[in-house]
DNA sequence: CACTATTTGTCCGTATGTATG
DNA sequence: TCATACATACGGACAAATAGT
């Protein structure tokens, strides 16, 4: 089978000419070069009618054959990014100038308004289970306790936005029913049951869409997702809810304003608003 | 040559069962599945002695042959992440327990202290370029202006933590040199140059590692990354810096404490500290 | 005008990797 | 495990268009 030889004795493969291409990366060499060139074109490195490197030149700098370099250029041509003419070379076709690094355009939703009632909620699961170890620890529960688990998908304009898995200690979970969750936020239900919400710990990270989540959010398996994990405490510091929310990054962005904290070496920013 | 047939007549290949793995991603199918499974293992989705899906089950859910599914599992085994026994199935080998759902344990770095000087910075690029359109817009620059661009990788204990691309208006960029960036944070350099830092807009999202970033961060292509895009303004509201930071989610988590805002229907939380 | 160097287009053959049944 | 198909990557060889002398 041979899954990567593991370079038995620490013998570095002595790659000399190979400028930053990684053959062990599982992505075809020509495609790596294609991405590098596209990146340079997008960022305007080849202004106007300047010529891209020739096939031979690319082959030399990246340590590949001319055919491989040619394929990278051909892929650019197939995308309409460059024009190629025999004897002349390869030049940038259209002034692309895209790549929205800054989001905000398009139909991106921001944090707060989304919490409003403009969204539709579908409940995929509502049951009582033994919690995963991490959840049990976060909620400071005893060993053999059950929790109320709910899996929800939130949509805006019919397009999935987030996939939520929430865990609530069973005694609190009894205070609401499956149908309630479709209409009101979980926190509101807990407050209705007399819980005095205090603070929350929140961790923001990134993960990949697995099969179930991908289906629910209508994205490809392996798509990136923004993951927010939140543990909510009441005013006595008792944990009352543990929730993981997975957002489609093309539909949702977590935006915030920061203000500079003067005179502190370690703490640079303080959130505002 | 045939670079992707372009599906001549709009004839969709009728992929039915294929639960949306991406064949156009140029990454082998077995490796895509490997990345997904590793991601799930790392995030503790298979607690304790739970079994991973069988080869046949994987083959069915992803619409590939059993051999391909087997290879994904074999690759996990080669990495020492799982144990496989005939007739029994595939189980998680070592309690990896990295990527704790709740952060904070293990070697996870939090936001603020990291900005300190415990980390080593490598500068991959330091030049003056025409900015990408999105950056130009964010910095409110005129059309044909150059900006100072820096690409950096930050490491802690020798392991890459973040990949940073920063753009600063050229006149401000002249105030520091390449070597300065390796020693002090960009904001400190700007303040040294007389800039009075005011506020910042920040967007948090998720993305996938491309070849260049993957190499720099020593992760696989297609791994999830936490993406923070920040535009910094001086006290007059003039933009002075645009920066995109890509974090390895297994090494860095964005944590925050939230306090409940009472009596507001739309605004539920207010950040504290 | 030929002559040449450069550069892309096309073809061959071969070896290895990927994916299927 | 085997046979098969296709993709990837290599090196070599030659043809055809372009630009300069």
Write up this protein.
Two copies of one chain form a homodimer. Mean pLDDT of chain A is 79; it is low at 1-17, 98-107 and 263-267. In chain A, strand 9 (254-260) and strand 10 (269-272) form a beta hairpin. Chain A has 273 residues and is of the alpha+beta class. Chain A has nine helices and ten strands. Chain A has helices at residues 29-42, 55-62, 66-78, 111-115, 133-138, 170-173, 178-183, 186-192, 211-217, and strands spanning 82-85, 89-92, 120-129, 147-156, 159-169, 197-208, 224-234, 239-247, 254-260, 269-272. In chain A, the strands form three sheets. Chain A has a six-stranded antiparallel sheet. Chain A is 26% helix and 30% strand. The first copy, chain A, binds a DNA duplex (21 and 21 nucleotides) through helix 3.
Oligomer: homodimer
Shape estimate of chain A: elongated
What structural category characterises the helix and strand content of chain A?
alpha+beta
Biggest interface, chains and residue tallies: A-B, 91 and 97 residues
- What is the helix content of chain A? 25-40%
* Order of neighbouring strands in the sheet with most strands of chain A: 3-4-5-8-7-6
The residue-averaged pLDDT of chain A reads 79
Number of helices of chain A: 9
Counting DSSP E segments of at least 2 residues, the number of strands of chain A comes to 10
How do the strands and helices of this protein lay out in sequence?
Two copies of one chain form a homodimer.
Chain A: H1 29-42, H2 55-62, H3 66-78, E1 82-85, E2 89-92, H4 111-115, E3 120-129, H5 133-138, E4 147-156, E5 159-169, H6 170-173, H7 178-183, H8 186-192, E6 197-208, H9 211-217, E7 224-234, E8 239-247, E9 254-260, E10 269-272
Antiparallel strand pairs in A: 1-2, 3-4, 4-5, 5-8, 6-7, 7-8, 9-10
Helix pairs in contact in A: 1-3, 2-3
The structure holds a DNA duplex (21 and 21 nucleotides).
